[in-house]
Design a protein that fits this description.
CATH class: Alpha Beta
Mean pLDDT: 82
Number of helices: 4
Low-confidence stretches: 1-28
CATH topology: Nuclear Transport Factor 2, Chain: A
Number of strands: 4
Strand order of the largest sheet: 1-2-3-4
Number of domains: 1
Order of helices and strands: HHHHEEEE
Helix content: 25-40%
Structural class: alpha+beta
Radius of gyration: 15 Å
Largest sheet: 4 strands, antiparallel
Strand content: 25-35%
Length: about 140
């Protein structure tokens, strides 16, 4: 089965132009990493709650951008949110929502893969958190 990507957003290796555009869209400049100490990593249960919340909010087309890093915020345009709401909203409530894999990607990034079962199939949600617990990648794919 062909995997269908609904949203593939910037990892830290996004283009310089897209990073500068994302920075220009924010009302206040982000503090430099040296100015902020990294928070304590959240527990797996907390991240799973965030992943569930993101699915539910995307299904409704209503998201909290304060949880996104600058690149992800720029990539998750209102048009993308609208398309996701249409696609994910039609799936209904999950029957199950389980952590399938967790791994460190280096550079302060941690990837969580959730397997979500719906009445009409299985989807995977990939959530990558940076070392400041901001969402750097959010991706939904049809599970196999």
């Amino acid at each position: 089965m062909m995997t269908r990507f609904l949203i593939l957003c910037f990892l830290l290796a996004g283009s310089a132009q897209s990073v500068s555009q994302a920075a220009a869209q924010t009302s206040a400049p982000s503090p430099t990493p040296a100015a902020i100490s990294a928070p304590t990593p959240p527990s797996d249960a907390v991240v799973q709650g965030w992943a569930r919340d993101w699915l539910r909010h995307l299904q409704m087309g209503n998201i909290d951008r304060s949880q996104l890093n600058d690149q992800m915020n720029a990539a998750l345009t209102p048009d993308v949110v609208s398309r996701l709401a249409g696609e994910l909203g039609s799936l209904g409530s999950p029957l199950s929502f389980n952590l399938a894999n967790k791994q460190s990607l280096g550079a302060g990034l941690t990837q969580y893969l959730y397997r979500i079962r719906f009445d009409n199939g299985v989807w995977d949600e990939t959530l990558v958190l940076d070392d400041y617990n901001k969402i750097a990648v959010l991706r939904f794919t049809v599970g196999q």
